[in-house]
Amino acid sequence: MSHSTMTADSAAEGRGGLLTPFNLITGVILAGGAAILVLRFVKGLAATTNLTHTNPWGLWIGFDVMSGVALAAGGFVTSSAVYLFGMKEYKPVVRPAILTGFLGYFLVVLGLLADLGRPWRLPYPFIKQAGPTSPLFEVALCVAIYLTVLFIESTPAALEWLGLKWWRKVVGSMTIALTVLGLILSTMHQSTLGAMYMITPTKLHPLWYSAHIPVHFFVSAVAAGLAMVIVEGMISHRAFHHQVQITDEHFQRINIGLAKGAAVALATYFAVKVVGLAMEDEWHLLLTGWGGWYLVEMLGFVLLPCLLFAMAYRERRVLLARLAAVITVIGVMLNRFNVTFVVFNWDGAPGERYVPHWMEVWVTVAFITFAVVAFRVIANRMPIMYEHPDFKGMH
Amino acid sequence: MTISRRGFIGGVVGGAVAAGTVDAATVEHFDGYPGRYGLLHDTTLCVGCRSCEVACKQVNDLPPYPGQPVGDMSVYESERRTTDTCLTVVNRYREAEGTTPAVYRKLQCMHCNEPCCAAVCPVRAFEKTPEGPVLYHADVCMGCRYCVMACPYYALAYEYDNPITPRVMRCTMCYPRIKEGLQPGCAEACPMGAITFGRRDELIRVARERIRKNPERYVDHVFGEHEFGGTSWLVLAGVEFSELDLHDGVTHESLPAIGTSYLSVVPLVITIYPGLLAGFHAFTKRKEQLAREEERAAVARALEKAGAETQQKLAQATEKAKKDQEKAVKQAVAKALADQAKGGE
Amino acid sequence: MYTLFDFLTHTKGMTYIVAGLLLVCFIPFWQFLTEREKHD
C-alpha cells in the first residue's frame, strides 16, 4: 500500500493546499490507472494484461477479487464481536473496520469491472439469465447484497455528520439485523470463493486442492480480517491521532485482544490444513518442490504469525502483534495468488506460465490508492475515528 | 414424463449401481439425452495432415493458421492448443521411429455429457443440446472466463484482442450442419477415417468392436466413455492415453457434481444462522443483564450492610450519650449536694 | 431431466428462492416471538 506517504502531517488535509506530496503521488498513480483502463477498453484485455487462454485469471482476480474480499473481512468479524458476542471494548474499531470493508468490497467491484470481458453486463445474472449452478453466481449475489449491507452500516457516520437524528436512529435500530445478515453473507461468499476451485482438481496442486477448500478460505478470511484491523489501525490511529478519543492504553488492549483472536484463527486454519494432509495421505508431497513452496506458505506465513500473535498476547507487546499482522496479510495474499495463478496449472498445462503485466500491477495499486484516499477524505470529515458528541452512547 | 419419480429413481438406481456410478448430488444417475451424437477419434489412423483444421476454419470463417501452413511438419515441433482463431489443433505426441508411425491426436472441445463450462457459468451461457453438442450463447456472456478456467481439456479460448464484444471461442460440433443432417466439417474432411460421426452409443460399440478385432493395435479402453461423467468425443489409441495428454484413470463422477456439491451448504447457512446468531445475541444480552442485576444486588447489600452498621453505631452512640448524660447529671447533683453541705456549716 | 446440469439448474434455482424467502420471513417471526420483551 502507498501508506509510506501517509504521515501525521498529511492528515491535516487542506492545510498545505492541494499540492501536498501525498496528493501529488496519489494523483499520478490514479491518473496512470485511469489511462491504462482507457487503453484496456480501446484495445482489449490483451493490451494491458498477460492473460492467456490457459491462464484466464490473473492479478486482477487474484488480488482485487480473491485477496480483496479476504482482507475486507474485518468488517463482519468486528461487528459480530461487538454486536452479537457483546465484546463492547472493541467498539472503537468497528467503524474504521466497516469503512475499510465497504471500500474493500467496492475495490472488488472495480477490479471486476476492469477484468470482465463485458463489464456492463455485470448485472446479467440477476436481470437477464441466472446460472444458479455456478459458485460465481452465489458469490456475485452475496457480494452485491453485502456491499449494500456495508453501505448501510457505513451511513450512521454520515448521518451523524449531517445531523439527521431521526434517520440515524432508524439505521441504528437495524444494527443487529444487519450484523446477522452480514455474518451470513460473509460466511457464504468467503467460503464459496474457495469452492470455485473445487471443479478443477486436475489443475490445482493436491496440497492446495481439497474437498475443504471452502473452509480454508473462510477461516483464513477471519484471520485476514483481524490482521487487517490491526494493520489499518496501526496507520489510521497515527494519521488521525488528533481525532482519537480512546486512551492509548485502551487502544493497546484492543490490539492485544485482536492478537488473541488472530492467533486462534491461524491455529485453527493450520490444524484444518494438517488434517487435510492426513485425510488425503499427502505427507510425501511435502518433500517435493511444490511441497517446499507449500511449507513456506504454511510455516512462514501461517504458523509463524500464529506464534507471534500468541507471544504478543501473552506479553502484551503491540509491536509484535503488528509484525504478525503484516505477515498474516501477506500470507493470505500469497495463498490467494497461489490458488489463482501460481499453483494453478502447476503441471501439464499448455503454454507458458502467467506473470502479471506491469499495467495489471499499476491498476491494482491505483485501486488500493483510491480506497486509501477515500478513507482519508471520509475520516477527515465524519465520525469514524471518534464518537460524535451528539450521538455518544448510541449504537 | 409419465413415469413416477419413485419408479424412475428405482429404475436408474439399479442401473447406476450396475454401472458403478452414483451421482454426488442425489441418488439419481443421469443418462443424458438418448440418441445423441458423438464422434470417434481413432488416433491410430491419424497421420497429422491437418485437413480437419482447414475444414474447421472454412466452416467457421476463421483466418488461416498463422505461419506454418498445412504440409509443413515443423508445426509439430511444439505442442499447440486451441485459440480464439483455431478451434481445433492436431498435436504430435510421438515421433515416427523406423516403421512405427508417429502418433497424433486432434484436440477440440469434448462436448462433455456434464460440461464444466455449463455448470460454472453464472449466466447460463452454455447449453447441452439433445443432439449432443454443447452450445455457447455470446448474447448473455459477461466475459468472466470461469468456463475457460474450469475446462479440464483446456478447450476454451477467449478473444482478449476484442475490446467491446469479446467471445469465448470453441468447437461447436458444427451444430448448424448437424441440424441439417450433415456431418461436422472435420469428420467429413478427414481422408483417413480417423474421425467418425454418429450416435454416441453406436460409436462406443464400434470402438469396442475395433479393439476386439485388433487387440495388438489398441489400448483396451475407450477414452471418454466414462471419464468425469463421459464426453461426446471418444478416443481410441495405440499408446497410453496419458501420453496423449488425456487424464487417465480419473473418476467417473462428473466434475460439475464435484464442483457444485458445496453449494448445498448455502441454504443451510441461510436457514440456520439466523436462529443460531439470534441465540448468541440473546445469550450475550442475558449475560449482560445478569451481570447488571448482580451488580445491583451487590450494591444494595453493601448499602444495607452499611445501613445496619450505621444504625448500630447510632444506637451505641445514643446509649453512650445517654450514659454520659446520666453520669454528668449524677455528678452535677452530687456536686450540688456537696456544695450545699459545705455552705450549711 | 436428462442431465445433472438440468437437474441442478432447476433445483438450485428453486432453493435460492425458497431460502431467500425463509430468511425474509425470519424477521417477522422474530418480532412476533419477542414482542412481549419490548413491554417488559
Keywords:
heterotrimer, A: 395 residues, mainly alpha, Formate dehydrogenase/DMSO reductase fold, 69% helix, globular, B: 345 residues, Alpha-Beta Plaits, three-stranded mixed sheet, two-stranded antiparallel ribbon, 9 helices, rod-shaped
Quick summary:
The complex is a heterotrimer of chains A (395), B (345) and C (40). Chain B is mainly α and 345 residues long. Helices cover 42% and strands 10% of the residues of chain B.
Structure description:
- The complex is a heterotrimer of chains A (395), B (345) and C (40).
- Chain A is mostly helical and 395 residues long.
- Chain A has a single domain, classed as Up-down Bundle (Formate dehydrogenase/DMSO reductase fold), CATH 1.20.1630.
- In chain A, 69% of the residues lie in helices and 0% in strands.
- Chain A has helices spanning 8-11, 21-43, 45-48, 59-71, 74-83, 91-115, 124-127, 135-162, 165-173, 175-195, 213-239, 248-279, 289-315, 318-342, 358-379.
- The longest helix of chain A is centred in the C-terminal third of the chain and has 32 residues, at 248-279.
- The radius of gyration of chain A is 21 Å and the shape is globular.
- The relative contact order of chain A is 0.16.
- With 345 residues, chain B is mainly alpha-helical.
- Chain B has one domain (8-253): Alpha-Beta Plaits, CATH 3.30.70.
- Chain B is built from nine helices and nine strands.
- The longest helix of chain B has 80 residues, at 265-344.
- Chain C is mainly α and 40 residues long.
- In chain C, 88% of the residues lie in helices and 0% in strands.
- Chain C has two helices and no strands.
- Chain C has helices at residues 4-33, 35-39.
- Chain C starts with a helix and ends with a helix.
- Chains in contact: A-B, A-C, B-C.
- At the A-B interface, helix 2, helix 8 and helix 10 of A face helix 3, helix 4, strand 6, helix 8 and helix 9 of B.
- Helix/sheet category of chain B: mainly alpha
Strand content of chain A: under 5%
Please state roughly what percent of the residues of chain B sit in beta strands, choosing from under 5%, 5-15%, 15-25%, 25-35%, 35-45% or over 45%. Answer: 5-15%
Number of domains of chain B: 1
- DSSP helix fraction of chain B: 40-55%
Class computed from helices, strands and strand pairing of chain A: mainly alpha
What is the share of helical residues of chain A? 55-70%
